[in-house]
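Archive transcription. Copying these from loose printouts into the bound notebook so they stop getting lost. Printout 1 of 2:
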Amino acid sequence: MVLLNARSLNQFRLEKYVVVPLPKNIIGNGNIENHDELVVHLQQAKQMLQSNCRNITVAISQKQTSIQFLDRDENTEYTEEEQIMAELSQYDSMDDVSYDYQNVSINEDGKESLLLVNSKRDDVNILMDAFTDAGITPTQMDVDILAIMNSAITWINIRQPELTEKCIAVFNIGYGETQAIIMRHGKLLYKQEINLGYDHLMQSLRRNYQLTDEEAWEMLYSQTKPEDYNQTVAQPFQQQFIQEIQRVLQFYFTSASQENEIEEILVFGYSNNQAANSLADSISQQTSIPAQQINPILLAQPGDAIQQAKLQQDSSLLTVAFGLAVRGL
C-alpha cells in the first residue's frame, strides 16, 4: 500500500507505505484462492498504514482482464460508446461484464486511440468482496499492468521527457514472474509474462545458505549479504534475466512492425545495490539497447516518518502500488 500526496502534477510526497508479504496459495494465477486469509492480510496492511484516506485505487490482475487499444477516426459516424459496445458484443449479456474506457491520445493523422479494459463481472465482484470484508472501499479499480505503465509514464514525464515519443521496453520483476511491456506514447504495443521473479532468488538463497523462507526474504532485502552473494546468487539470476529479455525482444520483433524499434529498456523491481549498475550495463551490452535500472516511487519526496535507507531497500516492491496511487491523484 502506498499513500501519496500531490503538491502538483510533477511533485509527489510519499506520506506512508506498507509492505505485507502474502503467504503462498492465497493468490494463484491472478485468482483469489483463499478469501479469508487475503482479508486478514488486507486488514493487517490497513492497520499498519493507519490512514483515513478515502481516495483508494486497487488493481485487478491483467490475467483476469482484456486490454485493447482501439484506433478511432474522428470523422467516423459511430460514437465512442457504439464502438465500445461493438467490441463487447462477444458477451451474451452486458450484465456479465465490467468495463471502462478512456481516450488515450490522438496521433498526427488525427486518429484517436481508445483504451478499453473489460473483465468478467464475477471476477471483479470476488475481488471487491475481499476489500469490502477488510473494511476497504475502493473508489476505482485499475489493472496491475496498466499501473506499471503509469509508473513508467510518470517517471519519463518527470525525469526523461525525451523518451515520451520513443518505443520503450519495461520489465517489472515481481514475486513469481516478471511483466514485460513494450509501449510507446502511453500505448501498449506488446505484453508478455516471464516465469522469473523474486521467488527464484529466494530458492537460490535457501539452497545455497540453508535458509527458511523468512530468513531468505530478510537476506534478499538486507544491506549486508554473504561475500559470495553476487557470484553465487545475483549473477546467475541476472544472466538468466537477460536471456529472458532477449527472448521477449525476439518475440516482439517477429510479431511487430519495425517502425516501433525499441530505443530504451527500463527495469523496475530489482534491488541489489551492489550490482544494479552492472545489470543495466550487461543488458545494454547484450541487447545493444540503452538500459536503466530504476524504481519509480523514488520520484516521490519521502515523508518525515519514512527512513530513506528503508525506502531505498523496499522501493523495488512498490511499482504497482505507486502507479495506482498516481492515478488516484
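Printout 2 of 2:
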Amino acid sequence: MEASLTAGALAMLGSALAHAGMTLLTKRAKDRLVFRALSLVFVAALMLPWLVFQPIPGWEVWRFLLLGAATIWAFNMLLIAAFERGEMNLVYPVMRGSAPALATLAAYIFLDEAVSLWQLLGLAIASSALVGFAWPEKDGTPKTQILLFALAAACMTACYTVIDAAGVRASGNVMVYTGWFFVLSGLTIGATAIIRRGSRFWAAARQETRPAATSMLFNLTTYGLALYAYSIAPVAPMAALRETSIVFGALLAALVLKEPFGLKRIALAVLLVTGLVVMQTL
C-alpha cells in the first residue's frame, strides 16, 4: 500500500508539472488559437486509428461527449482571451484554483449536497487566496477583465468535469470516452481556428507545429499520469496533489517568461493549494 501511495504521488506530481508545462506553451505561443487547435488535433489524430477498432458509443454517451465538446470549446476561447490580456502567474492560479472551489460552493448552495466543516474551511482558505490574487496592484494595473475571463474559464472547467464524470460512467470505458472527447475537441477548435484565421491559418500553423507537438505530449502525459495515479492510490489525496500545478505554473511563469513573482504571489499560491488540499483530503 505504501509503495502504491508513493508511486501514485510521484505520478500525480508529474501530471501537475506536465499540466503547468502545457499551459506555459499556450502562453508563449504567438497565435494561441492556432496553437491550441493544433495540439488538440494532434492528440485526436493519434487516438483516431485506435478508436475505429473500438465499439462506437451509444447516444446515452454521445450526448455527454457533444455537451463536453461545446464546454471545452468555450473553455479554450476563454483561456485564450485571458492569456491575451494577463500574465500567466495571475491567470493560471485563479483559473486552476477557483474551479474546485466554485464546484464545491455550487454543490452546497444549489444541489444541497452535504459539505463537511473541513471542506468549508478549505473553501474559505482557497477563497481568501483568490481574493488576494484579485486585489489591486500597487501600480493600479487593472485586473477586472483578466479575472472575469479566468473565472469564466474556471466555470467551464467545473462544468466539463461534471459532464465528463457522468459521460465516463455512462460509457463504462474511460479510454474510449477520452479518445472521442479529444477527437471532438480537435474538430471544434480546429474548425474555429481555420474559420477565424482564414488564409493566415497555414502560415500560423507552420510556426506553431513544433510547440503544439510538444504540448500534445504534455497533454497525454498529464492525463495519463493522473489516470495511473487514480488507479493505484486513493482519489482524494491524488486529486489534491494535482493542484500543485498552481505552484509549478507560477514558478515556470517566473523562470521562463520572466514574469514578476514576488513574495505576495508565492504566499497566495501556497495558500490556494493549502485550501484545495484541505477541501479534498480532510
